[in-house]
Every structure is written in structure tokens, then in C-alpha cells.
Amino acid sequence: MSKDSLLSISNLTVKFGGLTALDDVFLNLESNQVVGLIGPNGAGKTTLFNAICGIVEPTSGKLTLNGKSHDWPATHELTSLGISRTLQGVGLFPDLTVAENVMIGAQKFAKTGLISAGFGRNKLDEEELRGRAQWALERVYSGSLADKRADALSYPDTKRVAIARALVSEPKILMLDEPAGGLGAQDIEWMNGLIRNLRSEMSILIVEHHMDVVMSVCDELYVLNFGEVIASGSAETVRRDPAVIAAYLGTGVA
Amino acid sequence: MSQFLDMFLIGISAASIYALMAISMVLVWRSTRVVNFAQAGMALLSAYIGYELVSRTGNFWISLPLAMILGAAFSAFIEFFLMRTLLKHSNQGPIAAIAPIIATLGLLGVIRAVIGFIWGHGDVQLEAPLSKVGYKFGDTTLFIGPMGLFVICFVVALLLVVTIVFQKTNIGLALRASAYAPEIAQLSGIRVSGIRTLGWAIAGAAGAAAGILQTVNGTGGLTPESLEFSLLLVFGFIAAVIGGLESLPGAVLGAVILGLVLAFVQIYISGTLVFIVAFILLLAVLILRPQGFLGSKAGRRA
């Protein structure tokens, strides 16, 4: 493990009843690196994301953050630890405005409790969070969407707003769950550009099916199949790995 | 004309109490997906606590907010120590749907028993702090007097506070986000379990106000077996369903519709038809518009 490792996972196993969803999985993410998780459906990519996010409980495994051993975080602690994540289903709140949707991601900056809200602190909070939301929207070039209702957005716009909601907490690690899923060629190109821009300020972990996205933005790839890491390394190495070819083409490994 | 005005005033004063009850049902439903049958018991307990506070302090105006705070604390306590454990352990299969129903019904029985144990089974009187004699305009005496007017104004003020908290504060945003998509709220750094407890607490305060205002605005009599409070639960629930069960403005709208329809039936047709009409209204809404008037059709999907 190199010394600027931000997030590192070793020996991670997740079992659901008798089913082993992840088996002895490892992963390493360094500063300003883009790491992709690929693999066939059901390979355990989302489970790995969920384990990092405290949504599923690991059966065993070690987690290191900033080079120090750390407990598996609870979901609501993630943003304070500098980790933020988008979901496959996007998950915007339809009856809130875009700005409000993004503000939800900025909870860690809210200072007001319920009691102090009664004493006018709230106004300051509201302004600060709104400012941060605007800043996050500008970063995905969607500042003009702020006052629209989320259910009035086009699909590609909802994807941008979901990323803004993840960015507003100023993460050091951004986890993107299928950022290009459901997008057309032009929007995929746009997403590639965004990811390349963002990597100058943070590390990015991506689950993605679109091979051209993965190959064009990722520095390093981990290939999962049946819950195990079957290959890892640079895009070029992984692409030529016989185990990967077999997993994707469905032929037995000679 | 005076009959019509009476109908309107009866409807609105009933609606104001249904609205509080409906709001507490909606808040609990939104935060934990539980229909809280114990709400009737919690409101009744708050009315008894209100009675106890009034007889000790001699001051209704201090006792009302105090009882609301205690109602909130009790409700939060139930969520934290009972419901949280229950929902965590019975969260799969058919039992996940049944357990909260049995638990809250059981709790309703426990609360009534405890009330009987502490205050006895006889009638207890919580006196109205204001006159209930109707205002007079010339020859006509209106249906409501100072007490009734206070109830309506107090409820409207509470509704305004709730609206401001939900629409304008960051806590309100957290409450709404946790209700709509707990997973996303959590990923955004919201401590959803705490927000759930807060939802129950606000519901407890609203229920406490409903219980006390219902009592002082009515006969003032309280018994542990009070039928009045069971009906309050039913009407609050119907109002909540008319509004879509998810929506706070919907709950208020449902309460106003229910209150006015029942008042109309009571004045122009017959008082004995009130419950039948209430259930017909409930069935009609469930059949014709199951998502309620202000509920979202898509339901709750992130």
C-alpha cells in the first residue's frame, strides 16, 4: 500500500445467509486516482459500494482511511469522513427544487439544531447551504437549474444534479454508481469530461457498465466476478487478462 | 342562514381537532411506516396529564404547552425504546406488516390500563378555561364562544408553526428527505434514526394538543375507556387517508372536508348518520382516489 492511499480495503467478505456476495475482496484508492469496478451483473460491484457505505454489514474485512485503520463507517457518517456517493436510481426528491435537493447533501455544514432554529440561526444556515448548493451546481455546469422542480428535469439533468448533491459536501472520495447509465452518446462524452475535471480535486470510484467510459477515464480497474476480484491493474493490463475475457465472454478459462 | 353558519362553525371546530390528530398519524406514518393506533391512548394520556397539571398549577395556559412537551417526550420515548427495537427485529415477511399494528394496538390497551391504575376508572373533569357560551349577534346565538374560538385559533397557529418548520428550516428538509428516501438522506449525512424520533415527538405534541382541546371543548369528562378518543383516532385516520396519508397539507384538507361533511349531515340530516357517512367517505376515497387528494400517485420511490 503506497503512503498516499486514501481508501484501502482488504479481505472483505460479505455473506447474505448462505450466499457469499463478496469473497476476500481488496481495493486500493489513491489521491486523485479514478478507479473503476467492472464485472458482469451480480458480480458484487454494488455490494462492495454498499459495504463501504454502511448499507450492508461486512462479515469480515479491514478498512483503512488515509492510511489509518478505521471501523466500517455508518451511512450517515460518510460525508463527514469525506466520502460521498450517487445512487443508480438517481433518487432526487421530485417535489423539491434542484437547489433544495442539493442542499440535502450539505447537511454536514448545517449548524442549526431544532432549538437554535427557533432563535433565527436558521436564516444564516439556509443562506450558507444555498450558496454551497449553487457552487456545487456550477461545478456540473447546471447553475441555471437551481430553481426548477426536480420532477421537471430531463434525465441527463437529473444525473448532473445527483452528482452536484454528492459534490456539495466537498468529498475527497466520490463514489459514482453507473454515472453513464441511461445516457446518450453526447451526454456520456460530457460525463467523461466532468470526471476527468473532478479528479484534479478528489479520488473517484466508479461502477460502470459502459466500457468506453471505463477505459477512457479510469487509471485502474478491478474486475469482479461471482464476488471475487479476478483481475486488477491498468485498463490495458485488465483488457488483455484471460480471466476477464472469459468472464465477459462466458468461456471457460483454459 | 344561522343554521348554515352553525354548520360551518361546528365543521371547522371539529376539523381543527381532526387535523391535529391526522397530522400526528401522518408524521408517524411518514417517519416509520407505522399506523399508530396508540395515538388515541397517547392523546388521552396527555389529556389526563393536562388535567393533573391544571389541578396542580391552577393554570390552563401553562399546562397546555407543558402537556404538549410531555406528550412529545412520551412519543419519542415509545419510538426510541419500543418501536425501534421492534422494527429492527421484525422487518421481513408478513410479520413486518403485522407487528407494528399489534404493537400499537397493544400499547393502546396498556396506556388505558395505566391511566385507570393512576387516575381510577371514574369520570375526571378537565374544566374549560374559557366560556363555552356562544357569541351573540342580535337575536342569534352562534355555535361557538370564546373557548371554541381559541381552539380554532390555536390549531391554526400550530399548523403555521409546523408549516414553517417543514418548509423553511433545514430540520424540516431533513424530516422530508428522511420520509421520502431514508437511504439517500443517510448518504447525505442525515442521522435518519434521530429524525424518526423527532417525527414521533412532533406527532406526540400534536396529539397531546388534540386530546386536551377535544376535552375542554367538549364535556370536559375523561374516562380511561373513553369512546370519544377512539372516535378521534378513527376520524383523524380518515382525514389523513383523504389527504393521502403522506401529506401534511393533505391531512388538514382531509380534516376540513370530513369536519364540514359530518357537520352538514348532523345539522341537515341526522346525527345518527355521522359514523356511517364518515365510513362511506373513507371508502369512497379509497375506491375512487386511493392516493388521496394530495398524495403522490407514484408513491414513495427514489
UniProtKB/TrEMBL annotation, chain A:
Keywords: ATP-binding, Nucleotide-binding, Transport. SMART domains: AAA. GO terms for cellular component: plasma membrane. CDD domains: ABC_Mj1267_LivG_branched (cd03219). GO terms for molecular function: ATP binding; ATP hydrolysis activity. Residues 7-251 form the ABC transporter domain. This is Unannotated protein. Transmembrane segments: none annotated.
Automatic annotation (TrEMBL), chain B:
It is found in: Cell membrane. The chain crosses the membrane at residues 6-27, 60-83, 95-120, 140-166, 198-217, 229-245, 275-294. Pfam families: BPD_transp_2. One of its GO terms (molecular function) is transmembrane transporter activity. Keywords: Amino-acid transport, Cell membrane, Membrane, Transmembrane, Transmembrane helix, Transport. Belongs to the binding-protein-dependent transport system permease family. LivHM subfamily. This is Unannotated protein. It comes from freshwater metagenome.
